[in-house]
Amino acid sequence: MKLAAFVFLSTVACAMAQGESWHSSELKFGDLGDFKLENGAPGSLAKVTVGDKSFDSVNGTSLDSKTFSAQRTAFTTAVTGAVGAAGYPIKGANPAEINTPLLIAVLTYLAILVTMVYGPIAAALVELFPTRIRYTGMSLPYHIGNGWFGGLLPPIAVALVAATGNIYAGLWYPIAIAAMTFIVGLIFVPETKNVDITKR
């Protein structure tokens, strides 16, 4: 939770400092993992609030590049220091606190789950399409699913978190995709048991 909140802070703080789309907005950080994005007064600069400290972002429209860079660096440094003082991790995970055996065990378990899925997927995709279009039929949906739906997961999840202020809001995207996949598969994917792939 701390890491997710810090990643969100880093992304939004940089965007607020540089992009006009974040003007008139205020990002407020409370307890660890608790933050919210609020609309500010029209025309005001974006602001980051950490506890009882507030930091105005930089309006670079009237600044030369050197001055803007210096003020942006000062803003980023001040915000980073404040979130660090509030207890957020600003240097990443502490290797001394990582349970390496448990980490390896969890990753191995997840890898086993993936292999249990990929085996049946390969057989099912082969059986779903006739020989003359099998390569395209297998490749296109597979890469759309992995490339587009899977590849866009990080930015969509971050956007959901930024829009709601809830660090768990990004989980709704994979939940929605999984539900959609279940419904589509249940209704449209035919049974492939005993299909003779040499006669299609």
Layout of helices and strands:
Elements: H1 2-18, E1 25-29, E2 35-39, E3 47-50, E4 53-56, H2 65-85, H3 100-128, H4 134-151, H5 153-164, H6 172-188
What can you see in these coordinates?
The chain is of the alpha+beta class. It folds into two domains: 2-85, no CATH class; 99-199, no CATH class. It is built from six helices and four strands, in the order H-E-E-E-E-H-H-H-H-H. The protein has helices spanning 2-18, 65-85, 100-128, 134-151, 153-164, 172-188; strands at 25-29, 35-39, 47-50, 53-56. The protein has a four-stranded mixed sheet. A hairpin with a 2-residue loop joins strand 3 and strand 4 (53-56). Helix 1 packs antiparallel against helix 2. The protein is elongated, with a radius of gyration of 24 Å. Mean pLDDT is 77; it is low at 1-8 and 13-25.
